[in-house]
Amino acid sequence: MNEVRVECVTTQGTILVDRGGAEPEAFPIENNVWIVGDDEQVVIIDASHDAGAIAEAVGDRETLGILLTHGHNDHVNAAVELAQRLDALIHLHPDDLFLWSGTHGARLPDIELAHAASFMVSGVELTTLHTPGHTPGSVCFAAPSLETVFSGDTLFQGGPGATRWEYSSFPEIIDSISTRLFPLPGETSVRPGHGAGTTIASEQPALENWLARGW
Asked: Which segments constitute the Metallo-beta-lactamase domain (predicted)?
């Protein structure tokens, strides 16, 4: 049986962090790249660091789209090369184009993501949820029939994503999680852009603690 499955490719790279010195410091980072589909076709969620490793995992399957959860460099830096390798279109929410352009310059994504936009792969529907806060154009992709949501850097095991930049907003990310993600069934698997997964039910009780600590 040609069964739909979720595959994870873990890729390694670096991010630059400004610690107040003369130059930003480079730190190693691992990203989760998610591949959803069957033996014939897939969609890819995020394109981090290593286009070759992602393309190798896809193999000869048709790629219906590269769906980006947000515009940070470590989630998009392999997108253009990957799109060329797989003859695929890149999807990004327009509110993150300013971040995308810092990595890829004038080469724009192919299609603008919008809240409630849906994608079909092997009979499975993925629905776009606009979840601003980490970045203005952050999105998650919910796949109800797989009991899964791909949360990018919006929700992790233990709390929301970082909101330390001037374009980020802690109140916004809390609102996004509360109104877009927590209404999902409790058994929904949360598959983030970094690290281990969790479930909606596991994270819901901690909301008041997040509010109290402010991050």
From this structure: 30-194
Maximum Cα–Cα distance across the chain: 57
CATH code (residue 42): 3.60.15.10
pTM: 0.96
Collapsed DSSP state (helix, strand, coil) of residue 180: helix
Closest-CA residue to 127 (of 149, 148, 147, 142): 142
Q: What is the pLDDT of residues 80-93, one digit of tens each?
A: 999 999 999 999 99
At 123 the three-state DSSP class reads: coil
Name residue, tokens 């399957």.
Answer: 61
CB 76 within 8 Å of CB 47? yes
Task: State the pairing for strand pair 5-17/139-143.
Answer: unpaired
Domain interval for residue 160: 5-213
pLDDT digits (tens, 9 = 90+) for 43-93: 999 999 999 999 999 999 999 999 999 999 999 999 999 999 999 999 999
φ/ψ of 41, rounded to 5, equals -145, 155
